Amino acid sequence: MNQDYIKPDNWSIIEEGFDRESVKSSESLFSIGNGAMGQRANFEENYSGETFQGSYIAGIYYPDKTKVGWWKNGYPKYFAKVLNAPNWIGINIEINGEDFDLNSCTEVKNFRRELNMKEGWYHRSFQATLKNGTEVAVDIRRFLSLDLDEVGVINYEITPLNKDAKIIYKPYIDAGVTNEDANWEEKFWEPLDVKKSGNEAFVTAQTFKTHFKVTTFMQNTIWARGEKQNLSPTSVDTIADKILFYYDVIVAKGEKSGIQKIGGYTVSLNHADTISAAENIIQTALAKGYDQLLQDQIDAWAKIWEMSDITIDGDVKAQQGIRFNIFQLNQTYLGKDSRLNIGPKGFTGEKYGGSTYWDTEAYCIPFYMATKDQQVARNLLTYRYNQLDKAIENAKDNLGFTNGAALYPMVTMNGEECHNEWEITHEEIHRNGAIAFAIYNYYRFTGDYSYIPEKGLEVLIGIARFWHQRASFSANKNQYMILGVTGPNEYENNINNNFYTNYIAKWCIDYAYEQIQKVSLEYPSDHKRIMEKVKLSETELQEWNKVAGNMYFPRSEEMGIYLQQDGFLDKDLVRVKDLDRSQRPINQKWSWDRVLRSPYIKQADVLQCFYFFEDHFAKDELERNFDFYESFTVHESSLSPCVHSIQAALLDKMDMAYAFYLRTSRLDLDDYNKEVEEGCHITSMAGTWMSIVEGFGGMRVKNDALHFSPKIPKEWGGYSFKINFRNQILKIAVDHKETKLSLEGTKELTVYVNGAPVLVQPNN
Amino acid sequence: MNQDYIKPDNWSIIEEGFDRESVKSSESLFSIGNGAMGQRANFEENYSGETFQGSYIAGIYYPDKTKVGWWKNGYPKYFAKVLNAPNWIGINIEINGEDFDLNSCTEVKNFRRELNMKEGWYHRSFQATLKNGTEVAVDIRRFLSLDLDEVGVINYEITPLNKDAKIIYKPYIDAGVTNEDANWEEKFWEPLDVKKSGNEAFVTAQTFKTHFKVTTFMQNTIWARGEKQNLSPTSVDTIADKILFYYDVIVAKGEKSGIQKIGGYTVSLNHADTISAAENIIQTALAKGYDQLLQDQIDAWAKIWEMSDITIDGDVKAQQGIRFNIFQLNQTYLGKDSRLNIGPKGFTGEKYGGSTYWDTEAYCIPFYMATKDQQVARNLLTYRYNQLDKAIENAKDNLGFTNGAALYPMVTMNGEECHNEWEITHEEIHRNGAIAFAIYNYYRFTGDYSYIPEKGLEVLIGIARFWHQRASFSANKNQYMILGVTGPNEYENNINNNFYTNYIAKWCIDYAYEQIQKVSLEYPSDHKRIMEKVKLSETELQEWNKVAGNMYFPRSEEMGIYLQQDGFLDKDLVRVKDLDRSQRPINQKWSWDRVLRSPYIKQADVLQCFYFFEDHFAKDELERNFDFYESFTVHESSLSPCVHSIQAALLDKMDMAYAFYLRTSRLDLDDYNKEVEEGCHITSMAGTWMSIVEGFGGMRVKNDALHFSPKIPKEWGGYSFKINFRNQILKIAVDHKETKLSLEGTKELTVYVNGAPVLVQPNN
Hints:
Two copies of one chain form a homodimer.
Chain A: E1 12-16, H1 23-29, E2 32-33, E3 37-39, E4 55-57, E5 61-65, E6 78-82, E7 91-95, E8 98-99, E9 107-116, E10 121-129, E11 135-144, E12 151-160, E13 165-174, E14 189-197, E15 200-207, E16 213-224, E17 227-229, E18 235-239, E19 242-251, E20 257-267, H2 274-308, E21 311-313, H3 316-332, H4 359-371, H5 374-386, H6 388-398, H7 422-425, H8 431-446, H9 451-470, E22 472-474, E23 479-481, H10 499-522, H11 524-534, H12 538-549, E24 555-556, E25 561-562, H13 586-589, H14 592-597, H15 606-612, H16 619-630, H17 641-650, H18 654-665, H19 682-696, E26 700-702, E27 705-708, E28 718-725, E29 728-735, E30 739-743, E31 749-753, E32 756-760
Parallel strand pairs in A: 27-31
Antiparallel strand pairs in A: 1-9, 2-3, 3-4, 5-6, 7-8, 7-13, 9-10, 10-11, 11-12, 12-20, 13-19, 14-15, 15-16, 16-17, 16-20, 18-19, 21-28, 22-23, 24-25, 26-27, 28-29, 29-30, 31-32
């Protein structure tokens, strides 16, 4: 944890001072994205110090061959990885004959980075002295256009401070990139074509195996003496997968010069001819010009903030934290394209392969449901519906299930399982539960039942079939059990009767059963169509109910708690507070076996169940379970503190709720888990949003109505957020005296505050 | 399983008929070795069909980079793999202008392989018709000399049957080889030098990273018209890592011609100048000549059989099985070199990396103790003593133990852990128990206590310290537990309180404690030296005793059995006999998670404990546990049936004992587990020996005396074996009427037969 690294600011992420040690962390934190592509905050100019180069295109991945020590049956044949895309930001610079490189400058001062979240741009400035004695001031702004989502823009300015300078700008595009991932050194891009025309250039490459074709492009404009220079490259270097232009500029001491570079990608997912598409998009961008592109960016972000901003008064760090989270979520996924989903690191790193996890259903959907048009959440559900066949295939071919049982992949790009550790791939089957829960949650929130007869019910049936087959009967206990799983707490592997898994399994069967009945009554033609397809008999339904009705849940009656799994109480139960601080994070300090046998919990597990099914449990039961499990939870998953924050708020443990809120909202900014250099934790950022809206705001949807039970941390003066509830925009503002509700539009709305109905009239 | 594949024969392994489908399996079964090197029965001539090329040199390995999906703390940095060594057997052959290749011949008849175990050679003969119509008879004998263990010899003869033939013999040596292992395609040998002189050639190469230097050599002599031809190569092809000679011979129809090839390896483990060493060994071999080399081989094997043969009357398959096992063990390890150990596949395949496992201590040492000079077993113990520092380092650096706790590697070449699956490397810690048990077993059998004060005690202390630290206290049960392990039954991972592990852990601590007391009294200067080194306090010893004295053992009082682990009875307990045969072997038919949650046991686990500590349990307790666990054991580990066989014999279940015996002794010959093409199960072959000696013979050592309780399967007429007990050679012959004991040498010996003392007088 490093609390002094990012300067507190309501709207910007700011770093001051040049520290080689934090370059990789800053590259993560200052990442920019526009839903279609994104990139780490790598320097444009050459940098010989430690750096993690990363630029990513949504939907572009590579199926790497599964490589393991000993093969185990059921492993998928490949694992998908997000690819470091060709570099379009590169601008090498030569100043008075010396390659400009911050790592070799004799002095760097006034170094400052700013990620302006309100307006959606990244800025870097500093003064540096080169080894040849030339002192320069440098100022760079970069953004990825929300409007033209294939386009990024860089404005790079240099002012020599102590002498005249000959500056050679060398902008390039380069498909000869590799992944950071240390295990494999292969290249993933096959160069196809390099083309130039005036100040424009195009490198076309395709990914091996998947054959995604990408044209990476650039267009360069040189500025000097206050005006645009009509310069062509003095020279060009071309190799198979890279092209570099030379622009020579003589600049007087104190005079500014610069380069504006337009770049980006056109991809075969969207265009038949990616080169023509690139030529066209450059023309569109040039026609707007830099100033207009920037203004469009500011306007587009203003629209996003208008709906999704959360304000917090009197606590800059908390305000900065929540805005960083909302900003990153919007940089990662905008809900336009149902082929896409939300990778745990978004566009900020390679880890977790840029693939889709249960994070989407368990954490992200509530944020997108409440801050976007409901079609966005429906797109996310449809993503899974479209992959149902592959989930059935996965269960059948990899794991030996039958009769249309579906197991959704733990990690996927295209619906196929693409991760290869048995304890995760084969055993972390609870993901199936979250996918079913999201269908329920979508209907609960939006009231749009149509999704279930149209698509959702088939998914629910495939999942129920899986759970029915996956449970086994224990003659010993005369109940059904689910053996050999990994629960949400990944610091346990291959355990028996994970409470969360058993509970959601039973729920899935029950819910699927209920929806079959409901669709049968209310949507008979859909029911007929589906039953003809899935061939579900009454006998099979009875078998489902036998399992769901007699599921075993591990419990200590003495302590009045559910057990995370069989045998949990046999551990050496030293609480986190009694664990030497030097031993944490345990996943970095301990070998895996030690982690596994310890009582420490990576993320909410029993409590995740209480979160999903809050209404199923009494509050005192929640409290007993919360007090027990919280004391063993190390929150080394980014997905953990938000759930604890929400429950702490519900239990009136506001100091704790606030601490968890800070931890979740500033997880990356303060680098709690000492790993931000690998990228930011995008999916958990939706959990931060939930901490405020569901935690402090106490928002729930019950019986088609919004409920709030607002609380406020003592550190805050007030806070506010907006909710799009069934196409009505409600704003909630809470301070220490009152809760104010206001409604956009023309229709009134009844909501419940602390259980009492409140009729909210629209503003206008 | 394929019972008709190998012809029954008392002394030879025989295959008749050419079946492309079984080439890889036969390559395993007909492997030859001499302790220093070994090789699969690959054809000398080119073969374009499916084949698994393998030639191996003892002690030569490669530390491959650990490659995993997600890195877990504690993984070793590399995993060692046995390397396919350069090819010295290759002889390409051209007959009347056509490359001779059994896969493309139009007819192959009278194909026959024989591995003559009595005399230690491998023979292959057949008649084949080439596509060009030439019909030839071919006869090849090959052996690896026991006397000159760097030398192998091939005699390759061809007789054209239907026309004259121009035959070009093209013997070669080739370091451009790769491993069969499909995951990595890299080469592991760096060529250094290619040299030729007359009919000799030398290819020197070194392994990458480990830099083992190996000179592969050949010397060729051409025979035709009944005599040696004074031929030099007509031509030579040389590339960086390969050299190939051409010898042209014109042979009349019906006339035999041939090539004698001497080849092999000289290695930097044994020679500073490997090329000179190769030149010398060729001279030594040539001086003896082919006939003498063969006679020496026959004599050397006669000496081995003299001591280690087991005879079985009236059951050829059983006789062939046990001899195959004894033969392979002797081909693999002869106990000359304490740097070497026994890989699970010996020289017959790559799997298990040719590394050392607990197999050595748990299964192999009893065989070598009883059939060799006791120095051989002591060498095997010393191998671990020499690696104690690395076991301490492994426990400390990889797994966070302290204070000299030692965890021996699960898989090793040089004392370092070199396997990287957490469930095995980090959790299969019971190996430490077998290593301590072997020290006890060695003393029990040989009476040589000196090993303990000299070396063994330090090993015992390091191991006891490990178990003491590895146990954790369960306040819930008020006992010590060992959580998160994989027991001998590898079809369970990360389980709590594996009975075998908990039991042997307690035993290790108790035994180390007792030996410290004994050494203190009887070897005070050793005690002083060791205590100064290990700094063991009275307080620490008390802590040991606290753990060992209050260890938890999972048990069902109701059923009167120990539980393999916590929760075992919660499984869906369908017995193996009730499992559809089509589902087996389950490790090939089921995904890993299904295997793990099933009740099926890969190999003896609770029963392994009863085997090691037979005296600790009453016979009726053994019987209850045997009956229960046997019904769930699928014996998919080669190490399993031998233990069940021994216990079935003890429990007078002789039909079962005999079935298990056949399964263990003919595991590879009948290919029970459908995997012999990967190599033979060498270490389990020692278990086969135990099945007869300890199972049917009932041999035990108690109170410094040999005990027997002989039984005989009804299928046999009689059987006999020899035991080297404390430098006296006792022969035991059992038939349905009586047990005959005879003793070599001059001293008498008291043994116990069915509990009664028998004074055996020496023969002479």
